[in-house]
Design goal:
The protein has two domains: 411 residues, Growth Hormone, Chain: A (Up-down Bundle), CATH 1.20.1250; 92 residues. It has 25 helices and four strands.
Length: 551
């Protein structure tokens, strides 16, 4: 009877049902999480209206990162639940938490309506989302992997990886459709709530689909034998043999995953829109193209890893990204906004100031006002996406030099909030006028962009991200025994994606604000990807086709 049951578990129809239910639920959860990242510029205006534009965007990106920061906690909580009580129950809870929190964000009062109360509630719900997502991925990936045949595990779990693209695609389509239907003004006023409220429908569907699933065969057999662990945390992290695997999973795979994937699908959004002045609608359409192309590539690279091995496919993706970061970003800039690149080369911008008065302008909690003249000047330029260099001034005063013209910049110390805002607005107007006169475009012109080249470069980043991410679930599952698989796999995954990936947009953008170089943020991704390439080549073992019962 046991033999018949095991055969039934691998029947095509049964396997298809497992993959569809698991992938669909994960896609819905990623939809919930991604709409926040895609709407970061709008969120910055709605919930951080008391801050200046640059600080507000950084705060919104930091709040996006806060959701990721709590994912490792969710991984530990639901890892214990999944390893002690079962896979199915864990990811039923996570999808319910995620969907409920997202719907509530759609009805929150804004800063204009309730001041900091709305912001505080938003932070709380983002934390709930992060905890929920921390338990989601591991459960879905493990559930599918523990059903799949050994020689097809990469292709089967590739569908879990592709669920991220389906979730992102759904988020983008809902956002674009809503923006198109009601207009940008209405969307900024109230229409941003629609994508969040749509989650109510997705929540009902995903809970219904997952409730119909049975427990995974690997865990069911473990429970029948009475071998379910009582101390998954101690076994996963308190014993060197398991801890070593956790560390290799993090440094060898997840550092690059957090850097490569979130660079391609999140930071490039910020780079295109804020640094290069690409209209939000054009940026969203480009991201939709990237997402549609990525969906089958996850499954393809998962399938390829079943044939040639997990390690060469994943390391190939890392290496491609490492090669592309700097030249690819310059190619993107030339294709998306050639007028900006030409202006930067012809007329570099210099900020002459007392360099000791310049600050990092990194304030996720929104308590600093950045009142020095240096900060005022840098904030204006960063908001316009203009690179600059900082030179010490002879007399300690601050001026922005554009070609042969110099715009004096006053400080805002001692000014009220309204007066400081007025000072920055007037400074922005004066600097903007000189930039326009020097040939700097106010925004990117899609008609002048080389869209073909731009799409090709963006798709190269997609290939790098999917080559790494496609085989990843199978590789992680195959590193750990069934007893502690949920806990041991989920924690390094969510530290990598949650901390390395989640903090990539805000940290990279802050580096741009600090240095004045729109390419400075690339170093964050370069460092973490480089770490994974070295660790993978030295310590990561090939696991393709491995029997899970023998781990």
């Amino acid at each position: 009877m046991a033999s018949i049951a095991r055969q039934h578990e691998h029947e095509p129809r049964s396997m298809a049902r497992v993959v569809i239910a698991s992938s669909a639920g994960t896609a819905f959860e990623w939809y919930d999480f991604f709409i926040f990242g895609s709407l970061a510029p709008v969120i910055s205006k709605v919930f951080f209206a008391g801050l200046e534009p640059t600080a507000a965007l950084i705060a919104a990106l930091a709040l996006f990162a806060a959701g990721f920061a709590f994912r490792p906690l969710g991984a530990l909580i639901f890892g214990v639940v999944g390893d002690r009580l079962g896979r199915k129950g864990a990811f039923l809870i996570t999808v319910s938490m995620m969907g409920g929190a997202t719907v509530l964000i759609g009805v929150l009062p804004t800063y204009a309506q309730a001041g900091t109360l709305g912001t505080a509630l938003l932070i709380f719900l983002r934390i709930i989302q992060g905890i929920a997502l921390g338990g989601e991925y591991g459960g879905a990936a493990i559930y599918v992997a523990e059903h799949a045949p050994n020689d097809k595990r990469g292709a089967a779990t590739g569908w879990i990886q592709s669920s991220a693209s389906f979730g992102l695609l759904a988020a983008l389509l809902v956002i674009v459709a809503t923006r198109t239907a009601i207009g940008e003004d209405a969307f900024a006023s109230w229409g941003w709530r629609v994508p969040f409220l749509v989650s109510a429908v997705l929540l009902v569907i995903s809970v219904w689909m997952r409730a119909k699933l049975a427990e995974s065969p690997q865990f069911a057999r473990l429970r029948e034998k009475g071998e379910v662990t009582r101390t998954p945390l101690r076994e996963a992290f308190g014993e060197w043999r398991s801890l070593r695997r956790v560390l290799i999973a993090f440094f060898g795979i997840m550092c690059a995953q957090g850097a490569v994937w979130y660079f391609a699908f999140f930071y490039l959004q910020v780079f295109l829109e804020k640094s290069l002045g690409m209209p939000a609608e054009t940026k969203d359409l480009l991201l939709i193209v990237m997402t549609v192309v990525s969906a089958p590539l996850y499954v393809f690279f998962g399938w390829l890893s079943d044939r040639v091995g997990r390690k060469p496919v994943m390391v190939g993706g890392m290496a491609l990204a490492l090669f592309l970061y700097f030249p690819g970003s310059h190619w993107i800039a030339n294709a998306a906004n050639p007028a900006l690149v030409e202006a930067q080369e012809a007329t570099p911008v210099i900020v002459e100031t007392d360099v000791k008065s310049c600050t990092a302008q990194f304030d996720p909690v929104g308590t600093a006002k950045f009142t020095s003249a240096c900060d005022v000047a840098k904030s204006v330029l960063v908001t316009r996406g203009v690179s600059f260099v900082t030179h010490p001034s002879a007399d300690g005063s601050t001026r922005v030099v554009v070609g042969t013209e110099a715009v004096p910049v006053g400080h805002g110390e001692g000014l009220s909030g309204a007066d400081l805002k007025a000072l920055k607005a007037e400074t922005a107007r004066e600097i903007g006028a000189e930039l326009l006169a020097a040939g700097y475009p106010k925004a990117a012109d899609p008609d002048q962009a080389n869209m073909t080249l731009l799409i090709i470069i963006l798709l190269l980043f997609v290939v790098a991200a999917t080559a790494l991410y496609g085989p990843q679930a199978a590789a992680l599952v195959e590193m750990f025994p069934t007893r502690i698989r949920y806990t041991a796999m989920s924690f390094p995954y969510h530290v990598g994606t949650g901390w390395v990936g989640g903090f990539l947009p805000v940290t990279s953008f802050a580096l741009v604000a600090i240095t004045g170089n729109i390419y400075a943020g690339l170093w964050y991704a370069v460092v973490f990807t480089g770490i994974s390439v070295v660790v993978s080549l030295l310590f990561l073992k090939e696991t393709a086709g491995r029997r899970l019962e023998e781990i």
